[in-house]
Every structure is written in structure tokens, then in C-alpha cells.
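Handout for the seminar on molecular recognition.
Each group receives one record of this type.
Step one: identify the two inputs.
Step two: read the structure output and locate the region that could contact magnesium ion.
Step three: write two sentences on what you found, then compare them with the reference statements printed after the record.
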Amino acid sequence: MITLKTPKEIEIMRRSGVIASGARKLAGQMLEAGIATRAIDREVRAYMKANGALPSFLHYRGFPASVCVSVNDEVIHGIPGKRILREGDIVDIDVGAQLEGYHSDCCATFPVGVISDDAKRLIKICRESFFKALDFARKDCRIADVSRAVQMYVEENGFSIVRDYCGHGVGRSIHEDPEVPNYVEQGARGVRLVPGMVLAIEPMVNLGDAQTYVGVDEWTVHTKDGSISAHYENTVLITNGDPEILTPIEGDGFV
Ligand code: MG
């Protein structure tokens, strides 16, 4: 069931989004060769607490950390831990905040020091595909219009869209209806967008093949062919006019 948010709920979600975005920015600024990914988790947890929020992902279906940190061939759901970041890595920081019962969800992929030209382009195209989709995050468009915009842009730039995972509604739950796929099934249109819907739009883009597998920790999703993967996400409110990004993009590595 898709829930439409009231103005009062939207006001809370706006504040929740600012906190999630702030955590993304903080984590992005921490990334450098030699740090352990668990240090990011610690800082994000403290940041959430200091802002009166809860990390949405902590204990969600048993996830053991406050932020997903997915490095290189890891697509999503990487668990921060002992891993030491190295020059040339690319790191997806995915974080959700729960404030007064309402969630927000955002991510971005950041470079560690100097990265390859392929990696730079992958991160850039992935991020840009979100903004292509945003053009269709409007009243009377359909979910498939959003999905198609991501897929076309990514594929025309020679990369692969991950099909095993998708975006989603956000609100009282971190994952709500509707699903927001990053590709279009033949003939699919999806629901019509109406003001008050809040969607997490999150392209996941691989340099190589689209296929993925879940690693031995039962969380981390990897590319099957070992190629690198990028991810970008914001929480978006459908309005009567332009969409509103509830997780400010400042600190996403480009702004
Ligand atoms: Mg999400």
C-alpha cells in the first residue's frame, strides 16, 4: 500500500532528510587511504545520536551497523568493519535517518584519493542518471517513466543497471511501496505519481555485467564479474510542481 504524506509528516521528513544527508557528507569527508570502514560507522552513529535521530539501518532485518559501506565490487549492503580503505578505492556510503518515526534514505559513491578514469566516469554517470530520473518524478508521470530515464541514460553510456535491487517508497518504514526499479519490464507502466508520495530513487550501476551475488556475510552484494559498482540515492517528494529532494545533495561528492 502506498502512503501519501501529510504536510505535517513532510515537515518531519524534511528534517530527517537533512540529518541523513549530513551523515552522508560527514562520512564522505572521512574517506581516505588508511582508515578502517568501522570508523565511519562509529562517526555516523554518533552523528545520528547528536541530532536526535536513529540510524535507520541499524538492526533493520538484523543489519549490524548504522551505515552501509560498499567498496569497489560491492554494490550495496556492505558491512563496515576491519577493512582498511586504499588509494583508488570507490566507496558507496548509504545511510538512513529515523526522526520522530519517519525515515529518509540517501547515498553517494566517493573516491579514495586518485581513482581510475573508468571509476570517475562510472560515479558521474550513476549520479547523473538520478537527475535524469528526477525530471520524471512529477505528478501524473508513472514509476516506469522514472525507471526508463535511469536505464536509458546508464545504458547509452555503456554501463549496466543492477536489476536485483531497486528504489522504494519511504516514510514510517525505510522501505515502503511502491518499488522503484531502475529498468523497465516490457509493457510495465507502474503506478501514477501523485503529490505526497515520497520515493527513494537509487540507481546502482556496474562497470561490467549487471549480475550480482550475496557474499558469505549474507549481506554484502557483489558484482558477479568483480567489476566496480556505483550507487547514488536521494529521498524525493512528489509535489504539484517540481520534485523536492528531502536529502540535500550538498556533500554528495559533487556539491
Ligand atoms: Mg534505499
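Reference statements: The longest strand covers residues 90-99. The chain has one domain: 7-245.
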